[in-house]
């Protein structure tokens, strides 16, 4: 990671952020809908955190809570390598711990080696490979999921978690 951005701030997404959230998600994901583990989320409707630099958006994290597990649904750093993604993860982890969550988890895809490295360096463990889950999501939930990226077929979901309970 390069030098962190000194003016970086993180805050919870609020209603007035709706247009910004939709723009970030659409630019990163093609639209606001995100498929994972057989569920199609409208990430623009989920709670989240916005990273700001000088009052301008620098990143977004959305999440879903189910019982004592908090799922990171999307994480988009608009400025790479400057600590934005890490700061967003710290914010969700802090609030998850405060709420008594026992698990912070997420799904990434088999071709996303950058994300796999990023999350493992931040204490997440690979706990499952869901074979052909992306293929099923493409067929059943979101046909616009690309067939490949970086010359690698998108087929499988990788589940990572960070246990929060001591």
Topology:
Layout: E1 8-12, H1 18-29, E2 33-36, E3 39-42, E4 48-53, E5 56-66, E6 69-77, H2 84-98, E7 103-109, H3 113-121, E8 125-130, H4 133-140, E9 148-149, E10 152-153, E11 157-163
Characteristic terms for this protein:
166 residues; alpha+beta; Aminopeptidase; seven-stranded mixed β-sheet; two-stranded antiparallel ribbon; 27% helix; acyltransferase activity, transferring groups other than amino-acyl groups; GNAT family N-acetyltransferase; Bact_Acetyltransf
| CATH fold node name | Aminopeptidase
Tell me the total number of β-strands.
Answer: 11
Note the run of SSEs as H and E: EHEEEEEHEHEHEEE
The overall pLDDT, averaged over residues, is 95
Low-confidence stretches: none
The CATH homologous superfamily is called Gcn5-related N-acetyltransferase (GNAT)
Order the strands across the largest sheet as they lie in space.
1-4-5-6-7-11-8
How many structural units, i.e. domains? Answer: 1
State the shape: globular
Give the C-alpha Rg.
15 Å
Q: How many H/I helical runs?
A: 4
Biggest beta sheet attributes: 7 strands, mixed
The CATH architecture category equals 3-Layer(aba) Sandwich
Q: How would you characterize this protein structure?
A:
The protein is an alpha+beta fold. Helix content is 27%, strand content 38%. The protein is globular and about 40 Å long. 31% of the residues are buried. The model has no long low-confidence stretch (mean pLDDT 95). It comes from Phytoactinopolyspora halotolerans. InterPro entries: Acyl_CoA_acyltransferase, Bact_Acetyltransf, GNAT_dom. This is GNAT family N-acetyltransferase. Keywords: Acyltransferase, Transferase.
């Amino acid at each position: 990671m390069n030098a962190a951005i000194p003016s970086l701030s993180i805050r919870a997404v609020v209603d007035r952020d709706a247009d910004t959230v939709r723009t970030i998600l659409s630019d990163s994901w093609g639209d606001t809908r995100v498929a994972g583990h057989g569920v199609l989320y409208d990430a623009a409707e989920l709670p989240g955190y916005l990273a700001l630099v000088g009052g301008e958006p620098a990143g977004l994290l959305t999440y879903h809570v189910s019982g004592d597990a908090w799922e990171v649904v999307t994480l988009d750093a608009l400025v790479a390598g400057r600590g934005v993604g890490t700061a967003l993860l710290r914010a969700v982890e802090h609030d998850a711990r405060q709420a008594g969550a026992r698990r912070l988890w997420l799904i990434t895809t088999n071709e996303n080696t950058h994300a796999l490295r990023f999350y493992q360096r931040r204490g997440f463990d690979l706990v499952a490979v869901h074979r052909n889950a992306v293929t099923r999501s493409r067929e059943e939930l979101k046909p616009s999921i690309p067939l490949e990226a970086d010359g690698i077929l998108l087929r499988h979901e990788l589940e990572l978690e960070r246990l929060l309970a001591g």
